[in-house]
Amino acid sequence: MLSENQKLESKTEQLSIINQFSSSLLHLTKLDELFEYVTTQVVNRLGFVDCVIYLADPYQEYLEVAASMGVSHANGDYRVEQTKIKIGSGITGQVATTREPFISGNVAAHPMYIADLRPAMSELCVPLEYDDHLIGVIDCEHPEADYFTSAHLQILSTVAHLLSAKIHQLRTLENLQTTIAQLHQAQNLEKSLLKIANITYRFENLEAFYDDLYKIIASQLCAENFFIGLYDTQQDILEIDYLIEGGEKCNAHQKVSKDQIKHTASYYILKNQRPLLCDNDQFRMHITRGDFKMVGRSPRSWLGVPFLVNDQYQGVIVLQSYNNDQAFVNHDLSILTYISRQVSMAIDRQLSRQALEHRALHDDLTGLANRYLLLERIKHAILRLARVESSNLHCLIYLDLDRFKSINDSLGHDVGDHFLIAIVEMINGCIRKTDTFARLGGDEFAIFMENVQDRQQVTLLLDRITTAITKPLHIDGHVLQASGSIGVAFTDNESDSAINLLQQADAAMYEAKSSGRGQVCYFNNAMRKRLKQQADIENDLQHGIKNNEFALYYQPIFSLTTGAIVSFEALVRWFHPKNGLVSPDAFIPIAEQTGQIIELDLHLLELAAKQLKRWKAQKLPKTRVTVNVSSRHFASLEFVDTIQQLYHHYELAPGSLCLEITESGLIANLALATKIIQGLESLGVKLYLDDFGTGYSALGYLHQLPIHVLKIDKSFIDQLTERENPLVDAILKLAQSLNLTVVAEGIELETQWQLLKQKGCQFGQGYIVSKPLAADQAMAFLLSRS
What we know:
- With 786 residues, this protein is α+β, with helices and mostly antiparallel strands.
- It contains 23 helices and 29 strands.
- The strands form five sheets. It has an eight-stranded mixed β-barrel with strand order 21-22-24-25-26-27-28-29, surrounded by four helices. Strands 7, 8, 9, 10, 11, 12 and 13 form a seven-stranded antiparallel sheet that branches. The protein has a six-stranded antiparallel sheet with strand order 3-2-1-6-5-4, sandwiched between helices.
- α2 (31-46) packs antiparallel against α4.
- The radius of gyration is 50 Å and the shape is elongated.
- It starts with a helix and ends with a helix.
- This is EAL domain-containing protein.
- Residues 534-786 form the EAL domain.
């Protein structure tokens, strides 16, 4: 029996151990340190030969060793044999089940005892629990029988209680820290994904987008080896759009054929349109199955996601890890899947933008450069002349196909389009890859040759082109043959302009066209002089309108039956302050070409309206005046408002101001033109078709457009002398069948008058009655014939 002093000393020692233990626990912040401290203190302070802390797994099925401390014995170093014990198995597992302490001085007799490498006689085992939740057990064994006392049990139970509270505290703190870390990680991921979404919608350059994208990806994933590929399903080519190897950006835009990639993991996921996440063993398993082959090094981990862009393109984005400490997980797959969708949208936007840019700079039918792109390339080439000391020239070839309009009109636009495409293919086979081949509109083309060494080089090219395009072509069952009128202009001066070079080549082409079909003409000084005159006229036209330099002269239209004057055609005259009287043939085509014809026509219409009001104010006889206008006016309903305003402002009588349009300028948009003409009906405005018979395009339009009057061109009337002209008869019969009035232009002989009268032509116009007269003379002439 222990004396009272011994009991007191023992109690004091117990309290000292517990106080020191409790005090030390306050300073421990890591579970590993905590477990090591407890097992060490139990062995050293209590004199036990071992101490093992077991922790329950999250599913409360097993106990696993968390820490152990023991004294070595004669058979070798101390170690725990039972590192994992099923709860309910053995004494330790039983304590975990019952949550009751166990103490025994002779465990060999206990039915649940499981012997270790060093069999024990005594065992002390207490549960670790907090709030009725099993945390684990502390198990101590000793080779001596009846070694453990109730005092040991009391101390170990107290230690277990304090340890359980501390484990719970540290676990709670650890869970909180983990939760906070996960929250921060989630917030960082959310910010990264938002950044990706923002750059997807704001990027201007795809390469810069990839750079920004990679920085974000590298902040979230192991991305030392990364690439984005775009697969063209029509050409079976994979283009590496972006490539990172070993953390370094590499030159991308490598094009790889299907034969080169068909055995790779990237092509495997493209073909199956499924993502692939695998470690090294799984990667090799795919190789063994024949899904793909090993290309390069074997990865520690491989992650690839396919994506769709449009009907033509598929994409793939791949991450590879060769670091044993870095493997991809399903979470990474989810992130990369989201990223792949953003990349898909970015590429689709870029392709759409490129398609729009291409359409803006290229011809829809042929795919050739358009006028704008041609001029831009000429402009930059001319600028380079100032930076390079060279005797090279730049050359522009302007080609107009002969008789193309007849193909369109006689065989249809589809045949015409196919014919143009065939011509383009033949010319493409003649020119250099560095040359710019452009379609300027209709059947007009241009070839810009930069850095021509000599003019002979151009001559050889022209020989090739003319030989190629004159070969018979089989188009939609028709055998067609082309020829072209070609103009050529050169430049070697950085002060030249692109538009001037184009105008020079155009002028040379028109010179070639006037010389006969299939001709080539080089721009020369005579043409330069004419271009200068045209440029001067273009500049002077605007001043002429502002300064009232234009005037109207009125040529009578008369009845072939009675000779009475029925109306006037207003003809423009330009009294230039320096050049005197300028012929309409000299400025009307230029005004039409530059678009100045719109303003000029409106000015002339107003002059005619003012004159009609002036005659009305003078109480002179009512009459009709017709004014020639460009077909450009029939492209907008605003023209109806313009004519209505003239009628209302100048208080014109219905039908007193009418319009003439030449057959060569017939309107392309018949539906809109018809609406415009019908919109003028309430004003009594009649539409005259001037110069009828000089072409054949009008024949198909006469029954569609609400034309009121045909004017037979003077060239047909000139032939009406001693013999008949069947074309005049045909025109008169056509007009009669369509219930149209006919005016014969250019009547100069009595014979012509009488023949036309006999054929049933109602009205005439020409010098036989009067030349164009100034307004006062015209009205005086009208009064003298009434």
